[in-house]
Specification:
single chain, mainly beta, Immunoglobulin-like, eight-stranded mixed beta sheet, four-stranded antiparallel beta sheet, 4 helices, about 10% helix
Length: about 425
């Protein structure tokens, strides 16, 4: 007996100190309260554990009693359908109004209990352990007997242990702890109580991926992972997943390589090297080397050495930035006759207008326009309109042939004579 007590004491210590690094076999379990009105409380019975099975499952639990009558109720661990619990210990507490709910008896259904000094008073807690792990979906943990004296709709609530929380422990060493997923209550009179039955575990099946691989997942997890769910309880051995077409190295004219199917390689204009061939190392024939080719005008093109008609800069050289020597700058050159010519500054024999200036439109100052100017003595001189002191004959007119009227003798009827032009003489 001393050996048994020592073992169970150690198990309770594990509940107190073990850490829940990963989910254990008791994950998703809840604590419910169930009452059976047909069980009559008497002090002649030391323990009521096992008096109220629930063959119809958690949902059939009774969570409400009328007030005043004396009843027995049970705290049970409930685990999801399909789960494989290994329950070796539990810690929990209780909350209720002890001025309205009166307890007459209580007791653990495990092999050992380590309770608070005020247990089972309101706000107190206890720990219960089992020598052998419990593997049923519903496990009796504790029983209480009592009554509600006033009928004010109060409840007897399961709660976290004030010092250790609400947790299940398995039979690992150290124990894996799982948080209790829900805590129920027993209601009296108008209070219906609460029944947190555990959610049923999701079914699993084969999940197929595009690469033909298979994993056993739930339908939701399969969808989130981008796979196609094959149905509940399907398996991956043998692999039910469609296998993708074979792939291999596909070579392109530029010497690059991609792993593609034969069909995709052909559509992309490549040459397929065979199933399961790889691109590392690259099996593709490499094109001739190219480099920067410089031309006399300073322009640059990436060409092969054979195609370069300029100055080849070497294999793998580039045109950005441009490595080519640039020709001297040119600009508009203005001459005294108003002509314009694009040339370098050094070659300009006139007035250089600056680098990159152009002759269209013509930026050069134009010389004044000349024309023939006739004087009264009949002489002619080529000059500008502004400088003409006679009769200007128009832009670009000339004095050869002479356009100017010549003066001569004009005889009048009175026998007098005057040198004048013919036009003036006739007047």
């Amino acid at each position: 007996m001393k050996r048994l007590v020592g073992f169970l004491s150690g198990a309770i210590c594990l509940i107190a100190v073990a850490g829940a690094a990963t989910a254990g076999p008791n994950e998703g379990g809840t604590l419910i309260v169930h009452g059976d009105p047909s069980v009559v409380y008497t002090t002649d019975i030391d323990s009521y554990c096992g008096f109220a099975p629930l063959p119809a499952g958690c949902e059939s639990a009774v969570t409400n009693y009328p007030f005043f009558d004396k009843f027995v109720w049970w705290v049970k661990a409930a685990f999801p359908e399909g789960a494989s619990p290994r329950l070796s210990g539990v810690v929990f507490g209780v909350e209720y109004d002890d001025s309205q709910i009166f307890l007459l008896g209580w007791g653990p259904c495990g092999d050992f209990e380590l309770a608070d000094g005020s247990w089972p008073g309101p706000g107190s807690g206890t720990a219960v352990t089992f020598q052998n792990p419990q593997t049923s979906q519903l496990v009796d943990l504790y029983w209480f007997a009592g009554y509600d004296y006033y009928g004010n709709g109060v409840s007897f609530d399961l709660a976290p242990n004030p010092s250790q929380g609400a947790k299940f422990a398995d039979d690992s060493v150290p124990s894996i702890l799982d948080d209790i997923a829900g805590l129920g209550s027993l209601g009296f009179a108008s209070n219906p109580g609460t029944l947190p039955c555990p959610a049923a575990g999701a079914r699993e099946g084969a999940c197929c991926f595009e690469d033909g691989s298979c994993q056993v997942l739930t339908a939701d997890d399969c969808g989130l992972a981008g796979g196609t769910y094959q149905g509940d309880d399907t398996v991956c051995d043998p692999n039910p997943c469609p296998q993708p077409p074979a792939t291999g190295a596909c070579c392109f004219e530029d010497g690059s390589c991609q792993v593609l199917t034969a069909d995709d390689c052909g559509l992309a204009g490549g040459t397929y090297f065979g199933d399961d061939t790889v691109c590392d190392p690259n099996p593709c024939p490499q094109p001739p080397a190219t480099g920067a080719c410089c031309f006399a005008d300073g322009s640059c093109q990436v060409l092969t050495m054979a195609d370069c008609q300029g100055d080849y800069q070497g294999d793998d050289t580039v045109c950005d930035p441009n490595p080519c020597p640039q020709p001297p700058a040119t600009g508009a050159c203005c001459f005294t006759d108003g002509r314009c010519e694009v040339t370098t500054m050094a070659d300009c024999a006139g007035d250089y207008q600056g680098d990159d200036t152009v002759c269209d439109p013509n930026p050069c100052p134009q010389p004044p326009v000349f024309g023939a100017c006739c004087f009264t003595d009949g002489s002619c001189e080529v000059t500008t309109m502004a400088d003409c002191q006679g009769d200007y004959q128009g832009d670009d007119t000339v004095c050869d042939p002479d356009p100017c009227p010549k003066p001569g003798a004009c005889c009048f009827t009175d026998g007098s004579c005057e040198v004048t032009t013919m036009a003036d003489c006739r007047r």
